[in-house]
Amino acid sequence: MSEITTIEPFTEGFVEALLPELILFTGMLLLILVPNLGKGTFRIPGTQLRLPWLLGGTRFKFSSDPRLPAWIASITLGSAFLNVLYVFSQGLERVLIVSESGKELLLINGFSRIFELIFFGALALAAFSSMNRLQVKGIGSKIPENELYNNRRQADFYILMVTCALGMSVVALAQDLFVLFIGLELASFSTYVLVAFLKESKVGVESGMKYFIVGSVASGVGLYGLSMLYLWAGSLQFSVLAATFAVSGTTALPLIGIGFVLVGFGFKVSAAPFHFAAPDAYAGAMSPVAGVLATASKAMGMLGLVRMLLIVAAPESSDGSAVWLVCLGAMAAVTMTWGNLAALGSDNPKRMLAYSSVAHAGYMLAALTAVGAWNWDAAVAGDASAAAVAVMTALLFHLVVLVAFKLGAFLVLSILESEGGGSRLSSLGGLAKREPLLAVAMFIFMISLAGVPPMAGFLSKLLVIMGIVRVAVGDMGAEISDGGIYALGDHALGLVACLAYGHQLSHFRLLLSSCRRCDVL
Amino acid sequence: MAGTEVTTTVHSEWMQYAPLIILLPMMAFAVILFLGRVFNGHPFWKKNLKEGGLIALPVMGASLILSLLLISEFLKGYSGVEDIFEKIAWVNTGIWNGGSTTESVSFGFGIYVDHVTVMLLFVASFLCLLINVFSIGYMNTDPINDNRNHRFYAEFVLFCSGMLGMVLADSFLWLFIFWEIMGLCSYLLIGFYYERPSAASAAKKAFLTTRIGDVFLMIGLVMLWDLFGSLDYAVVFDTHNIEMVAESSAGTLQWALGLMFIGAVGKSAQFPLHVWLPDAMEGPTPVSALIHAATMVNAGLYLVARMFPFFGAEALHGDLDDLAFIIAAVGGITAVMAAAIAFVQMDLKKVLAYSTMSQLAYIFTGLGCAMYLANTLDWHHDSDAHYIVVVAFGASLFHLFNHAMAKGMLFMASGSVIHEVHHAHHHLHHDDHGDDHHDDDFDAQSMENMGGLASKMPITATAMLVGSASIMGLPLIGGFWSKEGIIANAWRVAQDDPRFLFPAMCVLIGAAMTGFYMSRMWLKTFAGKPNNEVAAHVGPTNIWIKTPLFILTFVTLSSILLAGMGFTHWAADTEYSFLSEKNLIDGILYEMGHAFANSDSFFFILTYVAIFLGAVIGPGIAMALYGGKLADGEDTKPWMRPVIRLSEFVNKRFHFDNTALRESSLAIALENRLYIDEYYDKAMLNIVAGFSTKVAEADTEVIDGTIKAIESGSQSLSSVVRSLTTGSARDYILMVAVGTLIISLLIWGVA
Question: Which residue segment(s) compose the domain that A465 sits in?
Answer without folding.
Answer: 319-521
